[in-house]
């Protein structure tokens, strides 16, 4: 029977995000470092000459290449290239929840420890500067939160006659929350802030009491 054959062929298949091959896929590392006797998170400021998002605060990371066997491998590779360190200087890398952005990007974030920050040699082609923020400060600081509203604008010639309701169709509107952290003149927002907030929520000490 055709139905049984179809189900047999599909059994054991590992599901993925529908259409993910059409998405821009990136992997990033949230780097923990030890500084002045406490744990900090390291951030980069993107170089001013970059075409995309110059001077914005981010985590090390970038586009997944076909040569990257996993998202973790990509995050580690990008971190070594951007911070000028050897892979052996990065340890205890574990995955966070991946994200599908509203702008056609899938982000695979990881967190790991950079053992020796004295070895950092940021690549000026990509990194304008680096800075660290004490984890204790971020845990004690609530970000400012603002909403972005998305509107649906069908293109010219959209076939309203093919959908129930036509031009009066009740589109589902979407709202996105943006978080803003500030520290010594630096502003952390966008996807970087969302990953940071996710990490802080996962590691909230109250969760482990």
Structural features, described:
The protein has helices at residues 2-10, 71-83, 135-140, 190-202, and strands spanning 24-35, 38-46, 57-58, 61-63, 90-95, 99-100, 105-114, 127-134, 144-150, 174-183, 186-188. The protein is of the alpha+beta class. The strands form two sheets. Strands 1, 2, 3, 4, 5, 6, 7 and 8 form an eight-stranded mixed sheet that branches. A hairpin with a 2-residue loop joins strand 1 and strand 2 (38-46). It is globular. The N and C termini lie far apart (55 Å). The mean pLDDT is 93.
Main features:
globular, alpha+beta, 4 helices, three-stranded antiparallel β-sheet, 20% helix, 209 residues
Concise description?
The chain is an alpha+beta fold.
Q: What's the topology here?
A:
Blueprint: H1 2-10, E1 24-35, E2 38-46, E3 57-58, E4 61-63, H2 71-83, E5 90-95, E6 99-100, E7 105-114, E8 127-134, H3 135-140, E9 144-150, E10 174-183, E11 186-188, H4 190-202
Parallel strand pairs: 1-7
Antiparallel strand pairs: 1-2, 1-4, 2-3, 2-8, 5-7, 6-7, 9-10, 10-11
Quaternary state reads: single chain
Computed structural class: alpha+beta
Span of the ends, CA to CA: 55 Å
- Mean pLDDT comes to 93
The whole-angstrom Rg is 21 Å
The main pleated sheet reads as:
8 strands, mixed
Element string (H = helix, E = strand): HEEEEHEEEEHEEEH
Poorly predicted tracts of residues: none
Count of DSSP-assigned helices: 4
- Name the helicity range: 10-25%
Report the principal-axis shape.
Answer: globular
Number of strands: 11
Share in β-strands: 25-35%
